[in-house]
Write a structure and sequence with these properties.
Blueprint lengths: L5 H26 L4 H36 L3 H15 L19
Helix pairs in contact: 1-2, 2-3
């Protein structure tokens, strides 16, 4: 999360803390036997908060890896980053080779 600004980091932490609070409420609701509909409503709130956090963290990750792939003068560093992304996300990177990635060219 190196590329996040202080504002982004604060927003992510606040969202996680909100999800944590909702999750605690869900546990309490389960313990006291609240209706499933009420529990599901809270569970949806937790899921939405985590989805937003995941999107923000992926955006940061993609900014970091894009910077390496497009701007690193080290061909091996670019290749390693492509392999890391392929392994991490199962991306179909076999369609091109790293030599085809020219850091001086702008993506289309």
């Amino acid at each position: 999360m190196n590329q996040h600004s202080t504002e982004e980091r604060t927003a992510i932490l606040n969202r996680l803390k909100s999800a944590e609070g909702h999750l605690r409420a869900i546990v309490g609701m389960m313990e006291t036997g609240r209706p499933c509909a009420e529990i599901l409503h809270q569970l949806d709130a937790v899921g939405a908060a985590i989805t937003v956090v995941g999107c923000a963290l992926r955006a940061c990750e993609f900014r970091d890896c894009t910077d390496i792939i497009l701007h690193s003068p080290d061909t091996e560093a670019r290749a390693a980053e492509v392999r890391r992304l392929e392994a991490l996300y199962g991306l179909p990177t076999q369609r091109f080779t790293v030599k085809e990635i020219n850091p001086d060219e702008q993506p289309t």
